[in-house]
Amino acid sequence: MAYQSLNTQTEPQTREAARWTGRQHGYDRWMRRLFAISATAVTAVIFAIVLFVGWQGAQTFKDVSFTDFFFSTEWNPSSDNPSFGAFPFLYSTVLLTLLSVVLAVPLALSGAIFMAKIAPRWMREILRPAADLFVGIPSVVYGLIGLTVLVPFLGKLFGSQGYGILPAAIILAVMILPTILSISEDALRSLPGRLEEASLALGATRWQTIWRVLLPATMPGIMTGVILGMGRAIGETMAVFMVIGNSPKIPGSLLDSTTVLTTAIVKDMGNTFYGTPWNNALYLMALVLLLLSLGLILLIRVVAKRREQA
Amino acid sequence: MGTKKGLSLVLAAVLSIGTLTACGSGNDSKGSAGASGSPAASVQPSQAAKSPEISGTVTSSGSTALLPLVKQAAEDFMDKNPKVTVNATGGGSGQGIKNVLDGTSQIGNSDVEASAEDKSKLVDHVVAIAPFALIVSKDVTVDNLTKQQAADIYTGKITNWKDVGGKDQKISLVHRQDSSGSRKLVQQIVLEGKDFSKEGVVQDASKTVAEAVAGGSGAIGYVDTPYITDKVKALKIDGVAYSKETIKGGQYKLYGMEHMYTKGQPEGATKAFLEYIMSKEFQDTQVEKLGFLPANLLSGK
Amino acid sequence: MTKNKLADRAATVFFWAMGLLIIAILAWFLIRILGRGLPHLSWSFLTGRPSEVRAGGGVGPQLFNTFYILFLSLLFSLPIGIGSGIYLAVYARKNRFTELVRVSVEALSSVPSIVFGLFGALLFVNWLGFKFSILAGAATLSLLNLPVLVRVTEDAIRSVPASYWEASLALGSTRWQAVRKVLIPSSLPTLITGVTLVAGRALGETALLIYTAGLSVSRKVPDFDPMAMGETLALHLWYSGSSSLAPDAKEIADASAALLVLIVLGLNLLIAIPGRIIQKKLSGR
After folding, report:
1. Which chain A residues have a beta carbon less than 8 Å from that of B109?
2. Which residues, 6+ apart, have CB-to-CB distance to B96 below 8 Å?
3. A touches which chains (3+ CB pairs under 8 A)?
4. Does the beta-carbon distance from A272 to B204 stay under 8 Å?
5. I want to staple C230 with a disulfide (CB 3.0 to 4.6 A). Which of A256, B253, C134, C203 is the partner?
6. Taking the model in full, what pTM does it have?
């Protein structure tokens, strides 16, 4: 086949064919340029976002000192003598993200091991698309469930209003579970089979093999999944907004109302005027959010590099 | 001919088809609206005879408290004027004023008066009075609070219902967000400008405040009265319950004037829409049905 | 030895339990959402106009806007996304520029959707004067789609066996010819599956659309005017839950949630799964 078509191309070396080839090379150059422009455009978008949000956020420092914004717990923007301490939001963002990861990781990891090594094949065939499906469920739907099921339940259980970090973390844990699970499963599956075979041949049980050999070997992959999950948890807005309570203070307990960066933004963005210190402070929070997410991406790259070296 | 170029051609084509069909379907729906809307047909001819061509798009945004009224008015108004499209969206009072100033919308709705600086650029239309009420969970035994007590509760000085004559039960506060018009109103009238306590739950809409109060125990919140449901209890303030009469008589002070701002004098469809909202027809029937009070209640006539 | 075996047994039981627990959680979510919402789904709900104060409002315009915004956003982002993906997979050399593009794509994929929303609100709604519109919503949404599309395209093209590519070049074709005639056709199933995932995510987006697409719908259905306000199904779900005065707002929220899940489910069944089967057949042979 290949040999034949090679012949038909080279044999009639007429001028027409040469021109045709020339044109094709022309197209090739043009398309190459177009693709490069597309890639440049993608790069431009992220730079535009960082520059724009950063510039707008930096305006905050005309009215609020750096230490006040990042370390003061006093958030009272609508008062006559306004204060813009965003520390409670930062604190709760970190706490919420960590808690949701702590809740999700054991389950996700066990699930990944189950799916990669234990579950029968037919079950895997069902579970994998199911996990994808759950990534696609809109976050407001998760929020709705949190608001109508989780908040009343926790409220009754603990005799509080039921809003707070705990319901938000539970909802987020369910949301990031499929992400961590599928990435960890891929990592487990991509291990060379001889690793497992060698361990089993040496007389180790399946559990010993998983615990001592497979898990350590897939650690970088699992870490990537966990960090991606954290990224999603940090940036999630609507689902958290519906269940976290949104009062601007450091929470006294896991069932005490508090605010995270995303919900602080969505709460007041629509109502504040462009260019006011209050509005600028919200952009500054968006910048902090952006930098946190970018930090996580850098972390993934570091982890991936280490994986390559290993 | 690359896919890239092909795709961008498709893009352009689809967009232009989109606009074309939009015009086309616009004509269609006019015809069908006239045919199917036969109950409204009695209004239509006379309307058409008086002012033959009202057309255009009116966008209104802002206060979530006023939104039900604007949406209802928009529905009615569009039934009568098939060539007009009224977009009504929320966002909050601040956003309403912001949007009308930057031209994103023609009408900005607000529960509170715009700041002096903004007011100079805007024309104010007071379209309704919105009574507000303090609401509590059903398990709260208190029926009445003095204004001072209410202020002490919301500034965090009083934290237990037994201090205001109820049973020994912790008070859980439900707020609106900092930038809300309702919050500003309660701050001005009940708290006399003092700052709210930071405890409690913050909700971004009147309805979610009512739901949080209904679902909680010992909870108190503030909403405009259309959002009061039978799952919560509205409190009297200084012994006075909200009603048309107590507000008119001046005994009940917790209410807001609902403003619809335009940038300069309204024109065309915007003007017609505002006139419709102010018309006797709408003020006398729909306004009170929606839980608001007519705009002219206080001025007498 | 027996102790080890016992531990192994216990671990197996534990993992089965965990696996079943995850299935139970996911199944409970589905049953809860669909169980609450399906009884309220009806033809009049799917096609009717929303109602503010009366019961019995529908989601016809929202349903249309959801797909229209999705369609437009894919229209904007597919050419650039696929173009960049092809560039990275085929043309890019190992240099600073390539590295920069890669970092940018990853960075873009990590941007929280609310930040996209703020960016879109100022760039499209204010500066470019789109106002609250389907166009502004779709344009902002396309930024969210971009990084995933790039990655999906690159992965799809890389999944084509290298021998196809080499054979094509060996026959004297230019790289563009090889891309167009060999790489794109044979990576199409993977590509479509990927685009489905992107679509699923875009369908449910809320935080980003609140400040760009608005919360109102056009009076006529369908309205293809890209400058009209375009509340989507996910936005309507949020609005019904938080502000709507309609007495059946809760049922509308439940039904909208079920409808959204059904759409995502349908997309997966209709497009992604056949794609996966085709892919398996292609790679199997």
Report:
1. none
2. B60, B61, B62, B63, B105, B107, B108, B109, B110, B261
3. B, C
4. no
5. C134
6. 0.83
